[in-house]
Write a structure and sequence with these properties.
Elements lengths: L3 H7 L2 H6 L2 H9 L12 H16 L2 E7 L6 E7 L5 E2 L13 E4 L6 E4 L4 H16 L7 H9 E4 L5 H9 L3 H14 L2 E2 L2 E5 L6 E5 L13
Antiparallel strand pairs: 1-2, 3-7, 4-5, 5-6, 8-9
Helix pairs in contact: 5-6
Length: 219
């Protein structure tokens, strides 16, 4: 369970700035020190982070949401207790490996990809921050994440070549690949129902992970 020691981590501006805050929090809370949070899949990290949040601050989570029906913004109280887990149901290319296959619907090319882990997420954040500092108006979030995930395309695994193929992938193929990765990726099902206080419409939304997830006083 999270203690005052972990709250010191959460208030560290240095860790927040360099993007390692959540990794350090995981390292501090996970009792089995042979487990490296950087090597854990994002879904596994998120599942533990939800558990850490519940033990530290309780299951109630208040965050700003937008009603899909009328566009009204309001604070909604979600329950973190009993969230469903989304398990991996697709077999990898080879048993016990993080390598999966998908055939692009438009070009017919065969893509081998991996599910991102903590280290990959940190690398994506660093690349996007670097582009921002260089004044690049295009954040390139789509291609950056895809490049980090794609291992090979039609057997081509040389990284500069993969980068070129990812950046020039047809939009239809890019969307289909990203949707497939999202569909099979294990983790926590963050979808919950909300009732709009303005139009009284009930909708299902993906629970946003805002600042108040680990800083409850912020809404």
């Amino acid at each position: 369970a999270m203690t005052a020691k972990e709250e010191d981590i959460l208030t560290s501006r240095a860790l927040l700035k360099n993007g390692t805050l959540l990794t350090q929090l995981l390292k501090s809370c996970i009792l089995n020190k042979t487990i490296n949070p950087d090597e854990m899949l994002i879904g596994d990290r998120n599942a533990i982070l939800v558990g850490i949040c519940v033990t530290g601050y309780g299951a109630d989570y208040a965050v700003n949401v937008t009603c899909p029906a009328c566009g009204q913004d309001f604070v909604n109280h979600f329950s973190l207790a009993g969230l469903k887990l989304k398990n991996l149901t697709v077999k990898p290319v080879q048993p016990n490996t993080n390598l999966f296959e998908f055939t692009l619907p438009s070009s017919g090319q065969v893509v081998h990809f991996k599910l991102l882990n903590g280290q990959d997420e940190t690398e994506v954040a660093k690349i996007m921050e670097s582009k921002k500092k260089l004044g690049n108006p295009v954040e390139a979030g789509v291609t950056t994440r895809l490049f980090q995930s794609v291992v090979s395309i039609n057997g081509e695994s040389e990284r500069s070549r993969v980068k070129y193929l990812v950046e020039n992938m047809r939009a239809l193929d890019s969307r289909a690949l990203r949707k497939y990765i999202d569909d099979i990726e294990p983790g926590v099902d963050m979808s919950q129902k909300i009732l709009c206080s303005a139009c009284d419409t009930q909708s299902e939304v993906v629970m946003p992970l805002g600042m108040s997830f680990f800083w409850p006083d912020i809404t």
